[in-house]
Structures are given as structure tokens and as C-alpha cells.
Amino acid sequence: MSLIKVIGNKKTVVLTALSTAFASVSVFAQETAVTATTTANTPEAKVDMDAIYKSVIFYSLIFLSFCLFVAIVGRAIRIYELTREVQGKPAAINWNKVNASLFALFLLIGLYGVYWEYTVHGSMLLPDASSEHGRKIDEMFNLTLIITTIVFIVTHILLFAFAYFYKHSAKRRAYFYPHNNTIEKIWTIAPALVLTVLVLMGFLTWRSIFYKTEDPNNKALQVEVISEQFAWQIRYPGSDGIVGDRNYKLTTGANVLGIDFKDKNSRDDQMADELWLPVNKPVKVILGSKDVIHSFYLPHFRVQLNTVPGMRTYFEFTPTVTTQQMKEKMNDPAFEYVLLCSKICGQGHYNMQKRVRVVTEQEYAEWIKQQPEWLNDDLRKAFNLPASAKPVTAAPAAAADTTAKDSTTNQPKAATI
Amino acid sequence: MVTSLPKQTGNYDMKPKKFIVWLFVVSSTIMFGGWTSYYLVFSGSKGKGHGLVLPDVFIYSTLVLLASSVCLFLASRARHKSTSLQKRYLLLTILLGLVFAYLQYSAWAQMSLGGAYFINNNAGISMIYVFTLFHSLHIIAGLGLIISAFFGAGKVSAERNGYRMEIASIFWHFIDILWIYLYVFLLLNR
Amino acid sequence: MSTIAIHDTHHDHHDHGHHKETFLTKYIFSQDHKMIAKQFLITGIIMAVIAMGLSILFRIQLAWPDKSFPFLETFLGKWAEGGRIKPDFYLALVTIHGTIMVFFVLTAGLSGTFSNLLIPLQLGARDMASPFLNMLSYWFFFMACAIMMGSFFVQTGPASAGWTVYPPLSALPKAVTGSGLGMTLWLISMVLFVASSLMGGINYVSTVLNMRTKGMDLWKMPLTIWAFFLTAILGILSFPVLVAGVVLLIFDRSFGTSFYLSDIVFGTQILPNEGGSPILWQHLFWFLGHPEVYIVIMPALGISSEVISVNARKPIFGYHAMVYSLIGITVLSFIVWGHHMFVTGMNPLLGGVFMITTLIIAVPSAVKTFNYLATLWRGNIRFTPAMLFAIGLVSFFISGGLTGIFLGNASLDINLHDTYFVVAHFHLVMGSAAIFGMLAGVYHWYPKMFGRMMNAKLGYLHFWLTFISAYLVFFPLHFLGLDGVPRRYYVFTEFEFMRKWLTVNVFVTWAAILGALAQVAFLWNFFYSIFKGKKAPQNPWEANTLEWTTPVEHLHGNWPGEIPTVYRWPYDYSKPGHDEDFIPQTIPFSQTMSSNLPHDFEGNEEAERIQREWDAQNPPAEQKAPLH
Ligand code: HEM
Ligand SMILES: [Cu+2]
Ligand SMILES: [Cu+2]
């Protein structure tokens, strides 16, 4: 009797399924009609819209028939089992066995899947780091990857193998084994030791990245990069090698960065459309933001640091591979380094890019000469500076102490108009 | 529903409920802890605090609050002896609580007159307002508890009376200590 | 003893007095913990379905960025003009998806359901410490959900600054449209939500500490209760900090204070705010945020401990170690928040410190994993749907935990932060693992909640489809991250190097759609079985814990007579010498003389002596029926 009831239910299910399908068909049909009329004159709007509708309907029908299929199969199994039960035979399907075997199967396919992922997707990753510290990071990464992969594989083999081998059997009893202090100690201490090694290495790498000792013979090139929605502004330090002060209160249409030209160091600062970096020379990027938090991200160099309004942040690194070399290495003439924004910053977040070029020292020197200065005649007037004053005495770049000034550049000065 | 239970059961419900008040005290402390640590990090990184001479009203309000705590304590003690005495002390506590609230308000007025507005480029000053505002919200809640104890006194069973008194006391003394903490904190971190 | 008896009389009285419960007090403003649990669960499921739908929407955008889907315009109106989701709406979808999943589904839906259901039932209490607060907790949660969903209907759209709502983006309507009214609603919703969580958490802690039945000392509590208890403590200690942060953000947004804002210029428009620091929000947020991820996973771990032990017919391996590792996680999770801020430019020394604490927290997590494996070893595993999900949880917890080791290493995080690698990490360890824990709980305690059984075969189908599709979705995402693809990107077409991932995105989206459709099997099973499922026996899984000693029919106060007394820990499964493979907690040792072990008596010499005498009389060769 209950069977009949259920079959009756099935009917209603089918009916509802079909009616939903029809409903959606008709809705979509109307839809096409409407959009067809409204967008008839925009040329690109006609892109195989019908095909999309058809595919939506198609897929929903597939899904519905799949549901139906599942329902029917479920019903069949149920009837089969019931008949076995009525006949007093043992259960036909041992679901424990089914699931255990599925776990075993999942393990095998999963292992192959992991292998496939590691080799196929694993070969699509970023090339080796193009910076000094980046290589250390890559080494650490590889070490961590090896350790974690081993643990990953071993634990999963255990997990699914146990699931397979210890599936339920009425003949067996589980082994009462509530604890074993020795084993527990071992597997507390072993991961602790491994992690200690990782922590130590990570800590040393981290320190070497953020605590740089200044090499007087190879001073870092200062470059300021300022983010705003949704662009990057670049400021090179000019001949004095020092990026001058900035005060957001001075921002005007002519002075978009709010550069404070009262500061002599600002007057020779140059603007640039691309971030050019001389190879094998340390560069210290000074980061700031005009509006919201962005993140200065150079994946190829393993460099990332947030740019925060009201705060100056620094990242020092040394590019080691020029763009040209990279093109050859990757065998891709179109290769370029990129700068992207990796902190959610609004609707244009996905497209906040700048090209980065690593070039030889000579190329850099050539290029930087052609970059315009931020200070133009209008700004000179605004800051009461002599109209055609020669650039501030070109102090030899080496003499300027690049870091000592940082503390002063840090303090935005009060606006004076 | 609970109130209609035979009176023995009051005892049974009480311990967990009192515990709830304690836990509330803990989480509230942590909320203020969040703000005071905001303040510390803020003043640490900017090298400055609110930089104000706090209005004298705060001294008076502190004294008033302390006095109210004492009254509440006396009320608790009096409840075994005489309901009317208990009620009188409770009334006094409520009055003092209201005076405290008024004093806090006048402290705001005084600060604003002195140019230290809530909307301020020194987040330290804004923080004084946040402290006092949220502390005052606690005062309102605390007054609610005391008022319920006040109206319960003599009406509900001795057990429930004691229970209400206890809850009100835990909370009110907590508010008291919290305020002293905040005040001292502000004095120390100018 | 006497108090319990007295309470029982109260109880009868109470039942008689309330025979005519109205629909309103029974189903809507119920103060009964079991009903409130169901309310939490069903609301949680509805929110999960909504959040899943949102994720399918933005997965469609990621997979086919150039195609237009006119039916999206039908659903979303101006947010998808021309059948394409707009960038700011994309961000809104991501934000609300994350918020709903983390807070409403995995915090309220998970803790709310199972703490409410199981704490009184497994501890032997009539109800929560304060049933009224409990009811309030649900209704605050409900309001939070309603307001959050309401933000879809405001003109400027829902909050869209990511679920972490970092200011200034979240503080300034100028920065993104979602930071207008939508963000205000988000904040209001969050305050209500935190209030709800606090009321819930306070109630749970108080109940656990004060209302255990006779004999139920802390070391006899099931691991579920330990997990809920520690989760509640975490919540009490961390949620207030979120409130503190949110309040300041509200002031910044609506009143013009400068707690988080300073030096901000839009184009050439200079904002008056000065002196604040956006980093401080991050500290306050992550001081909650990191414990929050454990608030999410710990109940799931507790549930799976119970489910694995019951269905492997074996005691959980290393019960004490399991508890200590939960405690360790609880404590440590308060000192690791900085690992979300390695690249904010905070003091690098701090970064080093947080790296150390973060990697330490991996140790207790590892211990738990190994203990699960040891529990399965030589078990007699019954693959109920709940067990399948619990095993799935272990798998995800391993996979996601291991990627945490990369992220916890500050040096590696430089390149991984805010990329798809993080997305993959937390979806495995938090998304998938915790959801699987929740589903395991639903399948396991469904008979307790609704008095009926769910269909096991549909459960198998549901599990396998979900398990496979979750891995198909999240495993490849790691590689996007390793290639430097940042998260929260609306399209990948603007960068040359990301184009190669477009096909992967299509694949992932199809896998996600498969996973979403698989949930139909669950939803059907869940709602159908409420009315038509097979009637449940009292103890369908042959489990030891107290909840299975209550009658199938729900009643106020849970047990018709006296609350049972507890004599033993909850994991006496397959104990040698006992005829059945489980011994409920309510069976005294005097009834199981043939299976008692020396350490069962915890140094009670009298009991040990009796046992010795009994052993002398009953040589183990011929196992006798247990004496009385
Ligand atoms: C082995 C233990 C774990 C370690 C070492 C670890 C480490 C980390 C780290 C360092 C991050 C920050 C990554 C970044 O933003 O760059 C992170 C993110 C995250 N983790 Fe874990 N984690 C662990 C376990 C967990 C667990 C158990 C959960 C949840 C139940 C979880 C959920 C999350 C979430 C949600 C995020 C992303 C937050 C965001 O939106 O930025 N993690 N994890
Ligand atoms: Cu950006
Ligand atoms: Cu974390």
C-alpha cells in the first residue's frame, strides 16, 4: 500500500518537474522576444542569445531528467530490497562495502588527480623568482611543498585505506584502543619539530627581507609608488636620489600627488609611465595611497606590500633578471613584468596595472633622462618658486644619504598657502 | 512562566543565571578592552593621546558613582532586616545613578565648550566620548536592573528578591569599577 | 538528588500548566532548546542556499566574462544590465556570500543548531540556563539575516568591501557604491548578529558549567560538548572586540569621526578626516577574525569526533589529547591574528612573532588529525551518511590545514597573500570542512531533531557528489594563487598572464554548479523526511551519549522522569567482555562487571576491590552474562 502511495507521489513529482520546465521555457521565450526587440539595433547584442537560452533550458531539462532517473533508481533499489526482505534473503546490497570501495576508488583517482594537477597546472605557474630574496622564498616554498605533499599523500592513503579495510562486518568487532600516550607524544612532537625547522627558516628569510643592512657601495634606488582608484603613480627621485616630501593637503588638479615643493628634494622628482628598474641594483619602493588601501604586488619578484593612506610603507628588493632575458627564457616575446593591485579597492580593482621593466643600467640611465619632472611652471608659481630656476644643485646621488631622510619625509608638513 | 514556579525552584535556576551575568560582565570588559587597546595603539603610533585636561565633573561623577555603589551594598544588607530600608537605599542608588548620568552629560557639554568635540581629528578625544557613551548605556541597563529589584522588593519571594539584588549588585559594581578603570586610564594616557 | 527531584515536580506542573501551547509559542517564540535548534538549522540552511546561489552567480561571471546571460538581468535588474554582472555588484556578491557563509551559516547555523540541541541533551539538563535569552538569540540572528538580505534592495546595493570590510573602502560611499546604505545595513546586521552570538555563547557556557546531570563531570563530557563549550568561550572573548571595532566604524561612517581615516584624497577632493589609522581596524577585526575561523571549525571537529567514534564502533583515540588540543587551539587562536596582516606594512618584528605563534597552532590541529586516523584504524566502520561526511571533514581538514602552513610562513605569505591560494586554503579548511561537519551533524542527529530518519541512499549520493565537486572546485584554485592571481578580481581578461586560467575557471564553475545541484538531494531529503521519513527508533546509531536516552517524541524538559545519572565516559564502544558493542553512559559499572577495566574506577579503591572479587569468582575464560 505504501508503495502505491509513493508511486503516487512520484507522479506528482514528475508533474511538478514538467510544469516547472514548461514555465521556465515560456518565461525564457518571452525573455528572448523582449530582448530581441530592445536590443535589435545594437549590433553586438545579437550574439547567439537563442543558443544561450536553449542551453539553459537544455541543462535544466537534463538536470530534471537526472533527478527523475535518481528517483527511479532509488525506487527500484527499494523494491528490490523489499522483495529480498519479504523472501527472507539477506540484504542485496551491502552499502558499507559500496562506500568503502568508493573511498578506495576515490583514493586512486584522487592520487592520479593530484599528480595531474601538480604536473599540468603546476607547470603553468610563475617562473622562478626574478629577485634576490625571491629565490630564497622559492626555496622555502619548495621545501614546504615537499614536506606538506608527503604528509598530504600519506595521511590520505591512511584515511581512505582504513575506510576501505575496516568497513563494517558483523563478524568482527572493533579493537578497543582508547589511547596510547607514547604514540600521542610522538605525533605531537614530530610535527612540532618539523614546524620548528620551517619557522626558523621562515623567520631568517623574513628577517633578511625586511631588515636590510645598507651597502654603501650599492645604495638602493628610491622610487615612490602611489596608488589611487584605479591607477598607480610613479615618482623617481631625480638627480639627488631622494624622493621629496608629500602632503596630501596640497593635492590639486595640477599637483595630483600633493608633492610638497617647499622641500628641495621634491623639485627634481620625475614622473614615469612605467616602472623601470635597473637590474641587480637594489630598489627601495616607497609606497603610499591616496584614497583606500591597495596592494603593491609584483608576483614575479615575490614582492607584495599594502599601500595605506596616511602611512608610508617600504619594500626593498633587487631585481635580477631583465625583461629581455625573461623573454628569452620564457620563449615568449610578449612577456612583460606586471604590477597589480591585490587588495580589494573598488570596482576597478581587477584592472589596476602598470608595466614593469627591468633593464640594464645603461638603458635605465638613458630612459630616466627623458622622464619629465613633476614640477612645472604652474606649480612653480603656486609654490612661489622662481619661474626658471635651475634644478636644485645636483648633489651627487651617492652623497645623499637615502635612508636618513626617510624619517623626515615621513612627516607630512602642515599646509601653507 | 518561570515566575509562576514553586519557590524552591528559584534556587535551581539562579546559579546558571547569575553566571550569565558574570559572563556578560566578561564580554563587556572585553569590548572596553578592545577600545582601550585601540587607544593605546593609536596613541603609541601617533605619539600623542587625547591631550586634554579632563573636566573636573568627572571627579564628582566618580564620587557619585562610588556613593551609589555603597548605597546598593547597604540595600543588599538591609533586605534581610527591613524591606522599606532596602527600598529607601535602592531609591537612593537610582537617584545617584541618574545624577551620575547627568554629570557625564554635563562633562560632554563642558568638553564641547572647550572645543574638544566628538568629531575630532584626534581620535583620542573622540574615544573619550565613546567610552562615556557606552559606559552610560551600561548605566541605563544597570538602572533597569535596580529598578526591577526596587519594584520586586517586598512583592516577590525573599529568594527572588535576593536573586534580583544579587544580579543588580554584580552588574552595578562592575559598572562602577569599569568607570574607575576608564577614568584612570584616561588620566594616565594623556 | 533532592534538587533534581524537586525540579521534576516543577516540571510536571509546568507541563500541565501549558498544555494548550499556541502555534506562536511552540514554533515561533519557542523557548525550548530543541525547537530553537531547529529554527537555527532551517534558517542556516536557507541562508546557505542563498549564499550558494550568490557564489554560482559570480562563478558564472568568472567563467564566461565575455558572454552575456540575459536571464541574469531578469533576476538582478540593473545590477546585470545586458546580462552581465557589473564590477561593483560582483564585489557585493562576493562580500555578501562570504559574510553569510562565515557568520550566518557556519557560526550561527552550526553552533546555534548543535550547541542548542546537544548541550542540554548530552549533559542531562532540562533546558538552557536561560531559555529566554536563547529565544532572543535566535530572533536577533533572524533579524540580522533579514537586514543583510534587505541590503539587496537598496538602491546602491549591498556592502561590497569584502567580508573583512577594511576601511577606508568600507567607510566611504565615494570609494564604492556598496559603502553607502548597504554598508550601514551590513554593520547593523553585524551588531545584531554579535549580540545573538553573545547571548547564545553566554548561555552555552553557563549551561555547561552549571547544569550537568549527576555524574557528568567535565571529563565525562562528549567531545561535542567540549568543542561547543570552548567555541562559546572563544566567542565570548572575541566577539565583543568586533563590536568595539564596528562601533568605531559606524561613527566614522555616519558621524564623521576619524578613528580609521586619515590623509584621504579622492582625485583632488581632500577629505577632512585626519589622524586615524585604517590598520587599527584590521587589528580589531582579526582579533575576532582569527578566533572566528576556529569558532567555525571547532564545533565541526567536535561533531565529527562523536560521529566517527560512534560509527567506527571504537572509542575516540586519545580523548584527553583531543580535549587538550581543543584547549590549545582556543588559547593560541588569540595570539595569531597578525598572520592576516603580514603585508600590511606593520612592524616586521611583529610579523615574525605572529609567524611563530601561527605555526605552533598547527600542532594541536595535527594531533587531532592523527587521532582521527587512529580511531578509524581497526574499527568496524559503518558508513552512515554522517560517517561519510565526517571522513570527508578529516580529508578537507588535512588538505586545508597543510596549505595553512604555507600561509602561516610570513615569507611565503608575501607572494600568496590575497591570492587565490588563500581562497583555496580557507574554502577547504573552513568552507568544506566545517560544512561537512555540519552536514554530518544533520544526518546524525536528524532522528533526534525530527523523530524520523533521513534516506541513507540519497545521503550517499549527496556525499559523493559534494565531496568530489568540492575538491574539483578548490584544488585547482591553489594553482591560480601560485601563479599570482589575486582574489576578488572581476575578470581575468585584463592581464595577459591570467588568460591561461580561463579554461580552468570554466571547469571550476561547472564543478561548482554540480556541487550546488547535489544539494538538491540534501534539501529534498531533509524536507521530505520531516514529514515522510521512516520513524526513528530511540537510539538509531546505538550510541552511548545521553541524548539517545530521551524519548523520540519531544517534550519540554527532555526526560519524562528523573534525569538519568551518568557513570562512565561516552566512548565505551566495543569494550572487550561486554556482549554488545556499546555501553551507554547511563549504565553503571556494577552492570558491566565482565568488561570493566582497572582505570575505569579512577582510583576508587572500594570499587576496585569489588571488581577484583568479582574477577576472582568469574575467571575470564567463560564470559558470563553481566551480573546485576
Ligand atoms: C593549520 C592551521 C592553520 C594555519 C597555519 C592557517 C594559516 C592561515 C593564514 C596565515 C592565513 C592568512 C593568509 C593570507 O591572508 O595571506 C589564513 C587565512 C584564512 N584561514 Fe587559515 N590557517 C589554519 C587553519 C585554518 C582553519 C582551521 C580555518 C577555519 C576554520 C581557517 C580559515 C581561514 C580563513 C577564512 C582565512 C582567510 C581570511 C581572509 O579572508 O583573508 N584557517 N590562514
Ligand atoms: Cu587597487
Ligand atoms: Cu587566521
UniProtKB/TrEMBL annotation, chain A:
One of its GO terms (cellular component) is plasma membrane. The keyword Kinase does not apply. InterPro entries: CcO_II, CcO_II-like_C, Cupredoxin, Cyt_c_oxidase_su2_TM_dom, Cyt_c_oxidase_su2_TM_sf. Residues 118-213 form the Cytochrome oxidase subunit II transmembrane region profile domain. The keyword ATP-binding does not apply. Keywords: Copper, Electron transport, Membrane, Metal-binding, Respiratory chain, Signal, Translocase, Transmembrane, Transmembrane helix, Transport. It catalyses: 4 Fe(II)-[cytochrome c] + O2 + 8 H(+)(in) = 4 Fe(III)-[cytochrome c] + 2 H2O + 4 H(+)(out). One of its GO terms (molecular function) is copper ion binding. Its EC number is 7.1.1.9. Residues 1-29 form the signal peptide. Residues 393-417 are annotated as: Disordered. The chain crosses the membrane at residues 56-77, 98-116, 140-165, 186-206. Subunits I and II form the functional core of the enzyme complex. Electrons originating in cytochrome c are transferred via heme a and Cu(A) to the binuclear center formed by heme a3 and Cu(B). This is Cytochrome c oxidase subunit 2. It comes from Pedobacter yulinensis.
TrEMBL record, chain B:
One of its GO terms (cellular component) is plasma membrane. Pfam families: COX3. It is found in: Cell membrane. The chain crosses the membrane at residues 20-42, 57-77, 89-108, 128-153, 165-188. The keyword Transmembrane applies. It is a multi-pass membrane protein. GO terms for molecular function: cytochrome-c oxidase activity. Residues 18-190 form the Heme-copper oxidase subunit III family profile domain. It comes from the Bacteria. GO terms for biological process: aerobic electron transport chain. Belongs to the cytochrome c oxidase subunit 3 family. This is Heme-copper oxidase subunit III. It comes from Pedobacter yulinensis.
